[in-house]
Amino acid sequence: MLSLLGKPTAACDGIPRRELLRLGGLSLLGGLSLPKVLQAEAARQTSSRGTAKSVVLINLFGGPSHLDMFDMKPDAPENVRGEFKPIETSLPGTMICEHLPKTARWMDRSALVRTVTHSLNSHHPYSVLTGWGQGPERNGVSKDDHPSMGSVCQYLGLGSGEVPGYVFMPAFPGHSQIPRPGAHAGYLGAQYDPLFTRCEPKFERTGEFYDPVLPMGPSLLPGLEHMPGVSLPRFLSRHNLLNELDRSTAPVSSGGVERMVRFKNRAFELLSTGKTRDAFDLSKEPDAVRQRYGEDLFGSSLLIARRLVEAECRFVTFNWEVAVETHGCHWDMHQKNFEMLKFNLPLLDKMYDNLVQDLQDRGLLDSTLVIVTGEMGRSPKVNSRAGRDHWTACGFCLFTGGGVQQGTVYGQSDKQGAYPIVDPVTPGDIVATVYQLLGINPAMTIPDLFDRPVPIAHGGEPIHEIIA
How far is Cα of residue 373 from the mean position of the Cα atoms in its chain? Predict the structure, then answer.
């Protein structure tokens, strides 16, 4: 809740009267208005008590093959079932790919959705992160975009305030090719964008689009390692000087200037908060833990994600993306599907198992929702290049921890894994489920650029069968 000087006196709606009196003036700062604050406050009052305090979302950029991972069809024709064999899991009657043996041990404590369906045939995390599965087909980021789940969490003021409430790793989506929508705050305003980390991975060799090469190195805080040593008095002096400049330009400030001021203040908060820097400092971890996660970009970034959860970050997304044109290691497998999966699946298996086991060992799994998914599935028929093509009609989403109903499988696809035949699930249903687990009312609305109310789940409904 907004804090202003003076003794607060609460109104009947829970907002202090002094704050109500000053909200009109504060709206001049841009992005903050009485309707927006009232909407956020109403959302909090109508939300249930969530079981998940944090979310770690692993997005498999490119479109992971549901048929070769979590919805295998061993009785289908050879050009549908593919090369891999299914194996038993800890959940009786549920089988997954032979290259996911560690993941198989967690199935009795997870919830698997096999029928995620939409029409957005584009390689960006828009449907995954916003719940809107109908567009845009274009790339690039627009202020008209729907906001991501993490941005909604920041808009509602969720989190401790000591660390960024929403972190996106290893860099902005599309950093290896062209910017892609989905991660940003859209019409909520750039002040609710995530903290985008950056990465400088090393590779043992140069590959090509269908030749995966493991990227080494962690996700990095932007710019911190390039800063010279600055004493605290000098640091504060610089901050005060900038504040004086802000005040001197206030009479002629525009909305753009005000947004720049907010970004500047956020940067100073980030640089001066030891809790954020500590979360990214992997040298504080025991050698055994670091070795278990690995020194590659994927494993080390998930170790940072676990440290961010411990620091009470609300929403962490890891977007599995590298320099795809020269080093492969993506999930867009129009060629060499099975060859590439033999590389990717053991990596994912190790990543997922390490993170979930670590969270459980630390007593954090019940309050942390771990999600594994992708923007689409892959085509039922294997093409002439031993690949599978785009397929938005059916995909998967794996939930673990954070209050999910353990040992559940929701939805059923047809005999070839092409279309849902029982319980189809939209991206809106997925994000509604996440909001419900976080204690956010999935039916709440937020204002767009014209202050029109837009439902955060876009008509989606929580999947109650997978919520404990």
Answer: 10
How many residues make up the chain in this entry?
Answer: 468
CB 194 within 8 A of CB 166: yes
Concatenating the DSSP letter of every residue in 340-363 gives: HHHHHHHHHHHHHHHHHHHHHHTT
Using pLDDT thresholds of 50, 70 and 90, give the confidence band for residue 32.
very low
Distance of alpha carbon 342 from alpha carbon 346, whole angstroms: 7
Angle between helices 34-46 and 17-26 (to 10 degrees): 140
Burial class (CB in 10 A: 0-12, 13-18, 19+), 256: exposed
From residue 196, alpha-carbon distances to 170, 171, 315, 319 in Å are 7, 5, 12, 11
Based on its alpha-carbon atoms, the radius of gyration of the chain, rounded to whole angstroms, reads 23
Q: Is the pLDDT of residue 9 over 70?
A: no
pTM as predicted: 0.85
Amino acid at 374: G
- N-terminal to C-terminal alpha carbon distance within the chain: 29
Q: How is 113-138 classified by DSSP, letter by letter? A: EEEE-----SSSTHHHHH---S---S
Question: Which of helix, strand or coil describes residue 378?
Answer: strand
Give the span between the Cα atoms of 183 and 125, in whole angstroms: 7
The pLDDT tens digits for 410-461 are 999 999 999 999 999 999 999 999 999 999 999 999 999 999 999 999 999 9
Interhelix angle 337-361/297-310, rounded to 10 degrees, is: 30
With contact defined as beta carbons under 8 Å apart, do 422 and 113 qualify? no
